[in-house]
Amino acid sequence: MASHKIHSQEENKIDVLEFPENIRSIAGMYIGDANDCTNIVREAVDNAMDELSFVENFDTILVNSGDNGEWFMVSDWGRGMPIYMHPQYKGWTAARVATSKVNAGGKFSKSQVSAGMNGTGIKTTNALSDLFLMFVRINSENIETTLPDLQEYGRDYLAHGMECFYCIEYHKGEYIKERIFDHNDIKSKYGIELPKGSSTVVYFKPDYSLIKNHTYKMPIYNIRYKAFQMKEYLHKDIHILVNGEDVVSELPQYKWHVKHQFKHLIKAKQNQIIDLYFSFELSNDLRSKTYKGSVNSLVVNDGLHIKMATLAIRRAICNLTGCENTYKLEQGLKVRSILNAVKVDFKSQTKEYCNVIDGWDEKLIEELVPKVEAILKQNLKFIKDYVSRIKELDSSYKKIELKRYIESKIQKTGASKKMKSPPRTLSEAGANSKDREKCELFICEGKSAAGTLNQARDPMIHAVLGLRGRPLNTVMRDIREVVKNDEMRSLINVIGMGVNLTPDVKNKRYGKIIIAADSDADGGLITSSVLATIAVHMTFLLNLGMVYVAESPFYEQGGKFFFADEFDKIDKSKPFSRFKGLGEINPNQAHDMFFNKKTRRLIKVIPDGSRRAIKFLEKSAELRRITAQELGVLGGRITMEEIEE
After folding, report:
1. How many domains does the chain have?
2. d(CA 623, CA 603)
3. Which strand (E) or helix (H) includes residue 157?
4. pLDDT tens across 338-353, in order?
């Protein structure tokens, strides 16, 4: 019976982290990269940029920083952070809730587009700062809704015509106090001068015990996307001044562009609208693709907004050219897709992939396709050339993949090297001479024939390879199928010079590849099979003049050999015999038939001559039998020389 350890209550304790420790303990989950201040600066800037859409005369945000990133200050002239008493949290102002309650914000129920984290952005900046201050300009309306203890101070400042600010202070995310200050008080206590007339100012000093270094990068592309959207949709120019320099510049765009508004959303819970703008072009460099984008002015380079644009482009190209493989039409594609939508979501807090757009359905892409087609029709020749180049590239990739596969399956032994391991289906007896050009490889059928040839050969220059049975007919087969076959793969490995896709012609193992088969029908088929394999998959062997067929004698009379075309030379009055196969001859006979250069008969196979063997093997088994009968192969009336003509 299994025993179970009883854990103490302390071991089973479940901790609940409250703000700010829930962020400080796992900062990377909230900002993605805690190496520098970039992301917490970005959140403060995003928070200010949200206001640009809602105040008509507000068009400028100021961003200032201290030396070496000691402090940052972001100022806007928007509506001002609300400071009323929050109905859900007794005794808390809305500003306190917004800066310290995760998943609290003003963008959940309203139909407005925001750039911030929808509930975590400015709180992340707060939690990861040594000092965090938020200032909100006091007016006659908001002072009446805030903490009662602060109202009297605010009224007094306003009565004397003084500009004053609500201030909330945090240290390492921990709440300290809320106060009302004028400019002089702020400068005296914190050494800060707030811009005149600003509505909301966020001042913070990053906590460098959590953030590794003082460097930061201004979110230039966030700013550019926001500026583009403001100009494109609201016809409003904006300015973001970083330490006095306007960093807003024109957003780079590609050659063609599409602007569309989706009004009839399929899954939207309310009457929402999705605005999509994308520019694109097709590069001559097909080795890469470039996708860039934005969701509600955040830099988001992957997700549904990219998919909308790329699918529409690919479908339009297919419609115009008849191309079927749409996924391949991404090579060389450059896209910048900019999305404005009320409700979106992301795969993570770092917002690198937009995976939810409320009301979106892939069917809506068909609204985009006609607009893309209208653009591409004006550049139809270029588009067709692009598709042709894609097909060529795809073919090249397939060849490369095939080459890698082939190289993983075969050995290029080269020169005098032997195979790493003998093939299971073949028996090889190698040649030992260092002069590989003089060496000859004899390919025969079966162990019996190989055994006879082994006894008759000169081991210095003659190698023998015995096949097991009839080889695979490879004429109509892909090279992948060929190298999967143990016997064919081993044959290729023994020759040691690769195949057409991976030739190694510099390091020959043999000067001649000689096929030595019986003179009957089976021998003819074996010869044709090996020749066809070489002709189709190792053509370079023929081009190098390395391939020969050893013609086996058909008859013997009085110690003299007669070939199939020499039947008339036999003295019919005397006894003669017909050879049944190479396995039945003795070593002396084998030496004279195949190794003695004075008495052997070799037929050199040239590329043109191999066509007959290939054509022969392309036929069905029955047609091959009929053809063999017609040629006289089965009756012994035709020579290999005639077959190869």
Report:
1. 3
2. 26
3. helix 148-159
4. 999 888 899 887 788 9
